[in-house]
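If you are new to this repository, start here. Below is one unmodified record pulled from the training split, so you can see the exact layout before writing a loader.
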Amino acid sequence: MQIKINNKPYNCESGETIFSICKRNGIRLPTLCAHPDLLPSEGVCRMCLVETNQSKGLVPSCVQKVSEGLEVRTETENVNKARKINLELLWADHAGKCAACLRNGRCELQKLAKEYDIDGFKFVPRRKELKSENELDLLKDNWSHVVADEKNPCIARDSQYCIECRRCVRICREMQTVEAYGTNYRSSNTNVGTPYEIPLDCIFCGQCSAVCPTAAITEKDEIEKFEKALADPQKMVIVQTAPSVRFTFLEEFGMPPGTFGEKKLVAALKALGANKVFDTILGADLTIVEEAAELIKRVKNKGVLPMFTSCCPSWVVYVEKYYPEFIPNLSSCKSPQQMMGALIKTHYAKKEKFDPKNIVSVSIMPCTSKKYEAARSEMKASGRQDVDIVLTIRELARLIRKKKIDPIKLEDGKFDPALGISTGAGMLFGSSGGVMEAALRTAAEKITGEELGRVDFEVVRGEEGIRCAEIEINDLKLRVAVVHEIRNAKKMLEDLKSGKAQYDFVEVMACPNGCIGGGGQPVPTSPEIRSARIKGVIVRDKGMSIRKSHENPVLKKIYKEFLGKPGGDKAEELLHTKYTNRKNIS
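And here is the target side for that same chain:
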């Protein structure tokens, strides 16, 4: 079938929408409700309006299906006038609030308002119409409607910025199957929120904040806590940075997705005043060594299989809340963040003669749920909270901009060597399949007792939601699976329950493409952006001189001096954890 768009012919299939055809052919249509990670939109924002020869009025292109003989016009006077009116109505609630907005300069609504030259105060009293200057301040105060949600340690909601686009509702329902969001009330009183306006009860993945076009949903900001720690001369501020954030950090400062920014990231943290900066990749390597030992033990001793990875806190809490019968399948290994936190306040503090109570342990993560993980009662191997502050990469970037620091202009920095040696295996943690491949590189050598050289397990790489493979190591066959996004994890769990699937080892990440698409990563996000980030990870791994976790020299030294052997008593005490059935816990 062919249709015409702006007098040019385009091929299409029956059932496609005008919006999808325009997108495929590079014809831009403004939108605030459509998103590349979501199913087709429901025409909520009314920004993608077009004129056609088959309708009397304007129609939203995201819901209008094509038909024979259709002719579309995307930029007529009527179309642009209607878009501007719709945008003005949305923008009216934001007028005067941009300066204090967390998304200022990175807000989709703000960008469109600038593009369409919107007068922010058209639908509210202008300054000259006010009886006093204080009346404008009072008006702004009345706009504010921050949702108090102290039970959720990760996500902040501020309905004054909500434009009712329903992206949060759809991402939570379609991708994560949690359905923590919905719409309340009717007609002009309709608002997006939680059922019955209860506290947000979810898995803390933060995908809602990643797709929100404004600042209606953000991570809970801990910048002030970090600044306070940096300003305290009595505190030793030690920062660790996750594997994936070195491939996304510079996006916040105008560089393309996938740009390797490790040295600029370290330099920026030192410029802010951090005393030490360590690489969480050491924690990733520890996780792999401990996890490989646990997997081999389970396989040889006929333990509970499949074994699930446990470094994604959203996945862990999903199992605890919705499938507690699978808790025994979760690896007891802590995540890299928590292993590093435990080492910093025990081994490193003792070695350097620091009092752990004066250490402020900070992590820079791609993830909102790491805030929840750090606050878990089980994460106190040092006798106190092992990780004190968790910042998403977005929070860190906001602080850097606030301090007028340009990371790109800084001289390259280096991780402090005591806990800062990187490996290719640890680097792979940044994307889906990376934990599996890193674990297999170590498990293969531990099982065979041989050095296998530069071995890769590319069979577990890819971007499909569920990827399965059978790995042969000598006479041992391991059935493995790699899963990302909770909708796919749910299918995998149901297949295991019904007997349709059998695995020995399963990696699960809650976010699309793993940590590289985490809920705390830079926005905007899309499959194309995440693919570019993944390419950066793969290229970097290939160029590393050390590509297996168990070959990390710092890790070897820590086991020799402090931990003993993988899976030993000291390692169990500091690096492993337990889980809780939360199915009936509100």
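Two things worth knowing about this chain: The chain has five domains: 2-75, 89-140, 145-219, 223-281+338-419, 287-333+422-575. The first helix runs from residue 18 to 24.
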